[in-house]
Amino acid sequence: MWSWIAHLALFGLLVAAAPVAPFDPLDPRSFVLLGLVGAWRYGWGAVHLVRSLVYRHLVFPRWRRLAESRWRAFDGLPPEEKERLLPHVFLVITSYRYPTEATAACYRAAIGEAVRYGGRVTVVASLVEPADRRLVKEVFRALAPPERVKLVLVELPPFGKREALAAGLVAVSRRMPRPHDVVAVMDGDTVLTPRCLRRSVPFLSLFPDVGGVTTDEAPLPRGGPPVHAWLALRFARRHLYMSSVALSRRLLVMTGRFSLFPAAVATDPAFVARVREDHIDHWRLGRIRLLTGDDKSTWLSLLERGRSMVYVPDVRVLTTESLPHRRFPVGATQLMWRWFGNMLRAGRAALALGPARTGLFLWWCLVDQRVSAWTPLVGPVAIAMLAVLVHPLLLYAYLLWVLLTRTLLVLGLAAATGRRLSGLSPLILWFDQVYGALVKTTVLFRLDRQMWTRQRIRADAAGGPWRAASAWFAQAVAYGALVLAVGLATGFFELPPAVAVGGGS
Q: What number is the average pLDDT over the span 100-115?
């Protein structure tokens, strides 16, 4: 509340102190360019908003009623019969160097949820550290679950999350699950909320082609107010976009925080092999082995198989979130590098599948991910040029425009998703869009550079100085083209008369 009061007071002071502009605010040089880009961005955002509301308030409630009606058939059965007929759930949990309290909270919630589920549950803990193994055993013994809840420990060297997840899936396949059984994968810092299994598992049998189910997420942030505001904003936007894409029975990712798959899919040797070792081929960078982004690999596997995906917006899991560096800009940059790298690498592979495999709307969303790497840079570049060309007070007008539009966007997002967002969120949103675009476009030319700080996974540019130099050159050309295009549109640059009229020398 206080953050919003401070934000609105600051905005009011800036408006009150605004001088009379000695220029036409509707000057075509600024209005046309920024108006066209804004119409594209805000129009596309409005499409996602409408689709999200339609999915969550019209389509999904019907699916929920259908899923519940099928599940109620199990409620009147004797415990032994119910245990036999319910899908056996295998909870594959990967843990590596999470804080002790986060690991303990994860397994307490997972085992408690296994008890509430009512059917058989096998918790497959894929662990590296001896201390984690002792902790998990202690938590399991302390909770003393019934016989139908089992614990399986998979011990392996620190080869990364991909190997840990693949080893967990292999451990599941060795237990010969039935085709209708369920494999849920989750990170060791995820906290399951009560009845999330009971309310998620039925959706895997809702349609015959469902290949995966994932749920809403909410952060348990660790850090100062900017960290809280940034993460809350990102998860609210995730909720909106996932709901929008889910209307097409596709998703943007099968998140590793908590996703469910039919056992027949998750134990398929090709699926496991893709989790363990995935790659993309790039014309300049060659073959890039994917070290992070296992959740994108599972997503691509489902797209290639033509399987549909379901987003369950009324089930939420909690995820422990912290920045890998105590300084917000540095930590945010490191996370953006990983997130955007995974997104761009997987998006490249998904686009190659074509709209026939991905679905037209998802395919266009993937195209927009590429476009949106550049559009947030148009406004700042155009305003900087116009401030020189027209008047410096345009910078002040742009500040007011940013505060007004981002405030309205944040308030609309909060209303549409039901999330509580901070008064810092409007400025954080602008930071996420503009600075995020700089990071995203930098990553775009360096897809071979991968980083996962907590697991000490890092892959720098291969191929020596030539490949690094080619990345800088390609990026400079792209930025130069952007500046030239904006400069021509604003009149900051002018074509020679012969070029302008299409004449020759």
A: 95
CATH number of the CATH domain containing 254: 3.90.550.10
State the total domains in the chain. 1
The pLDDT value recorded for residue 144 is 95
Residues with Cβ within 8 Å of 58's Cβ and at least 6 positions away in sequence, in order, are none
Other C-beta atoms within 10 Å of 263: how many?
Answer: 24
Average pLDDT of span 355-366: 95
Instruction: State the residue range of the domain holding 142.
Output: 79-326
Q: Which helix (H) or strand (E) holds 490?
A: helix 464-490
Q: Say if 220 falls within a structural domain.
A: yes
Helix (H, G, I), strand (E, B) or coil at 473: helix
Q: What does pLDDT average to over the chain?
A: 90
Average pLDDT over residues 187-212: 94
Q: Confirm whether 168 is domain-assigned.
A: yes
Within a domain: 456 = no
E strand map for 286-423: 286-290, 308-322
Give the pTM: 0.92
Location of structure tokens 């999200």: 52
Which pLDDT value is given to residue 367? 95
Q: Are 46 and 370 in contact (CB under 8 A)?
A: no
- CA 249: distance to chain centroid? 17
Q: Decide: helix, strand or coil at residue 53.
A: helix
Alpha-carbon distance 169 to 183, whole Å? 8
Q: What is the mean pLDDT of residues 28-47?
A: 76
The angle, 0 to 180 degrees and rounded to 10, between the axes of the packed helices 393-417 and 225-246 is 60
| Inside any domain, residue 52 | no
CB 162 within 8 A of CB 277: yes
Find, among 459, 440, 457, the residue nearest to 449 by Cα. 459
Given a contact cutoff of 8 angstroms between Cβ atoms, the answer to whether 309 and 254 are in contact is yes
| pLDDT score of 160 more than 90 | no
Phi, psi angles (nearest 5°) of residue 326: -70, -25
Q: Which long-range contacts (CB under 8 A, 24 or more apart) does 462-468 make?
A: 462/285, 462/286, 463/285, 463/286, 467/284, 467/285
Chain-centre distance of CA 5, in angstroms? 30
Separation of alpha carbons 3 and 16, rounded Å: 20
The total of other beta-carbon atoms located within 10 Å of residue 487's CB is 16
Task: Measure the CA–CA gap between 340 and 343, rounded to whole angstroms.
Answer: 5
Give the rounded percent of residues in the chain with a pLDDT score beyond 70.
93
